[in-house]
Amino acid sequence: MKITSKIYTALIFVFLFAPIAVLLIFSFNETKSLSVFSGFSLKWYKELLGDRSTLESVQNTLILAFSATVVSTVMGTAAAVGLHRLRKKWYRGLINTVTNIPMINPDIITGISMMLVFVFVGRLWGASTSLNFWTMLIAHVTFCLPYVIFQVLPKLRQMDKDLLEAAMDLGCTPMRAFFKVTLPEILPGIITGAIMAFTLSLDDFVISYFTSGNDFQTLPIRIYGMTKKTVTPKMYALATIIFFVTMTLLLLNNIVDDEDSRRKRELKKNTIKQGGNKK
């Protein structure tokens, strides 16, 4: 059984990562061929750096992802704190259900519905164009927000309630107690939620496609436009760079989680030792 499970696991990894491996290898190919590797070259990376339109779309994507991450992280953290303090279970369950909708709703439904709302509001205000950077930002914050909330909420539940009460007993205002006690405790969840929001915003296509205007084009939309003609190997080079950036964010996410778990284990050990010494 052990051999069978190892073979099965290996096949799954091959199935998942073989296309990525092909992409990585042929991004260094000297020619455009996808069947023959004629030699190692950085030609397509150099051409990528000279493609002004692609670099502009990359810049737009990073600006949008960073803006959506900042807004959704701040709003998501505040929403998580508010949800955690709700005393009525039925009301908390209702809010959690509503919060889940952007996560479980198909992207195409979310994209079309938001596009209709933006166009309707734009016509009411008499705007010359209804879709632009701000509509994309609102759309990205909408689907990133739940992921931040559900990363921060578990950290709030794990936090010792007595710490916050002790801080306020010692003279801290509720706001000061939040920044001095609550924020350091939930910071790993905030960082994890921010990384997830950035990653989701970075590679979103469907919702961005329906909520974008003509004056602001992200990288996924540009690549989709190129597929109607042909995708040049410099896109393989760009995809390789994005892959390594995403992997770096994933590793950072794991490091934050491991560090938080280690800190909590040490805190628990110290608490047990102090309890034993008192006895």
Key descriptive features of the protein:
mainly alpha, 11 helices, 279 residues, 0% strand
Molecular structure report:
With 279 residues, the chain is mainly alpha-helical. 81% of the residues lie in helices and 0% in strands. It has eleven helices and no strands. Helix 3 crosses helix 6 (133-158). The chain is globular. It starts with a helix and ends with a helix.
User: Helical element count?
Assistant: 11
H/E element sequence: HHHHHHHHHHH
> How would the global form be characterised?
globular
Strand content: under 5%
Largest sheet: none
Strand elements, count? 0
Helicity range: over 70%
Q: Please give the alpha-carbon distance between the first and last residues.
A: 50 Å
CA radius of gyration is 24 Å
Give the mean pLDDT: 83
Low-confidence stretches: none
Structural class: mainly alpha
Summarize the topology.
Blueprint: H1 2-26, H2 43-49, H3 52-85, H4 89-104, H5 107-125, H6 133-158, H7 161-169, H8 174-202, H9 206-211, H10 219-227, H11 233-278
Could you provide a short overview of the structure?
The protein has eleven helices and no strands. With 279 residues, it is mainly alpha-helical.
